[in-house]
Specification:
5-stranded mixed beta sheet; single chain; alpha/beta; 6-stranded parallel beta sheet; 9 helices; 2 domains; Rossmann fold; Dihydrodipicolinate Reductase, domain 2
C-alpha cells in the first residue's frame, strides 16, 4: 500500500513513523506547506518521499491521511474522494458543516472511495455506533479539562472568567454539540466524532468544565436507548512531543491505519 500524509506536525510524524514499520506499506509520500517539516520526517524514516502537491500523487496512492488543519481538510477531502482514493480524516471539525459532510459522503459513494474517521481521544464509540441500530434517546458528552486548555479562548474572555483564579471545578458551558464546537475549538474533534456517529450535532448534549486540580483531559460519554444504558470515561495523557494533543488521539489513528493496511476488522 502507498499512502500520502498531508501535514507533518506531531500527528503526521507519529503516523509516518508507525507506517514505516508496517510491512504492508511500501511508500509514504509526505506533504506539508513547511517543507522543512516534511524533510525532518523524511530523514527519520526509510520509505518516505517528499511531494510538492497532492493532485499528481492521487494517481498512484491508495490512502491519504489528512493531519493538517480544518481548512486544509476542506480543500483536500473533495479532491481525494472525487478521484476514488480513500482518505483518513484527522481534522474532524472540517465535517461539522452538514452540507459539506453530506457532499463528501455522496461523492465518496459515487466514486467508490472510503472515508475513515478514527475514534480519536474518546472511548465508547463502538457502543455508540452499535446502539444506533436501535432507537437512541440520549447522548451526552461531559468534558473536564485543566485551565491550560482554555487560555485565549474567546468564549471564556467574553463571559469575563479569570481561569487562573479558579479554586474549584467550574462549569463553562452546557448546550448542544453544535454550539460547543463553535465556542471551544479544542473540543471539536471529540464532539464531532460523537455527533457524527450518533444522533447529530443538535441533539447531542455537551457539558464543558474547567478544573484547576487536574492535568489531564477527561471525556465521559453517556448513552441511553433501546439497547439499555452505557457510560464510558476516558482520561487522556498528553502526547509527549505535543502536550496539546492526547496520546490516544494519535494512537487511534495508528490503530485505524494498521487495520486498513492489514484489512482486519475485529471489533468494528
Amino acid at each position: 500500500m502507498r499512502i500520502t500524509i498531508v501535514g507533518c506536525g506531531s500527528r503526521g510524524t507519529q503516523l509516518a513513523k508507525a507506517a514505516d514499520k508496517m510491512m504492508e506499506v511500501k511508500r509514504i509520500y509526505l506533504l506539508d506547506e513547511d517543507r522543512k517539516r516534511a524533510e525532518k520526517i523524511n530523514g527519520e524514516i526509510n520509505k518516505g518521499e517528499i511531494i510538492e502537491n497532492i493532485d499528481e500523487e492521487l494517481y498512484h496512492c491508495d490512502l491519504v491521511i489528512e493531519c493538517a488543519t480544518q481548512q486544509a481538510a476542506k480543500d483536500i477531502i473533495p479532491k481525494v474522494v472525487a478521484r476514488g482514493v480513500d482518505i483518513m480524516v484527522m481534522s474532524v471539525g472540517a465535517l461539522v458543516d452538514d452540507d459539506f459532510r453530506q457532499s463528501v459522503i455522496d461523492k465518496a459513494a459515487q466514486c467508490e472511495a472510503k472515508v475513515y474517521i478514527p475514534s480519536g481521544a474518546i472511548c465508547g464509540t463502538d457502543g455508540l455506533s452499535s446502539s444506533m441500530m436501535g432507537n437512541l434517546t440520549e447522548v451526552e458528552l461531559n468534558t473536564i479539562m485543566p485551565p491550560l486548555n482554555f487560555v485565549d479562548n474567546e468564549h471564556v474572555k467574553k463571559i469575563g472568567m479569570d481561569i487562573d483564579a479558579l479554586k474549584e471545578r467550574t462549569e463553562l458551558f452546557s448546550g448542544t454539540a453544535r454550539e460547543a464546537v463553535q465556542l471551544f475549538p479544542r473540543l471539536v474533534n471529540v464532539a464531532a466524532i460523537v455527533s457524527i456517529m450518533g444522533i447529530g450535532f443538535d441533539k447531542t448534549k455537551v457539558t464543558i468544565s474547567v478544573d484547576p486540580h487536574i492535568k489531564v483531559n477527561s471525556h465521559e460519554l453517556r448513552i441511553k436507548g433501546d439497547f439499555g444504558e452505557m457510560t464510558t470515561r476516558t482520561c487522556n495523557v498528553p502526547l509527549e512531543v505535543n502536550p496539546r494533543t492526547s496520546s490516544l488521539y494519535v494512537y487511534s489513528a495508528i490503530s485505524a491505519l494498521q487495520r486498513i493496511v492489514k484489512n482486519q476488522w475485529i471489533g468494528i
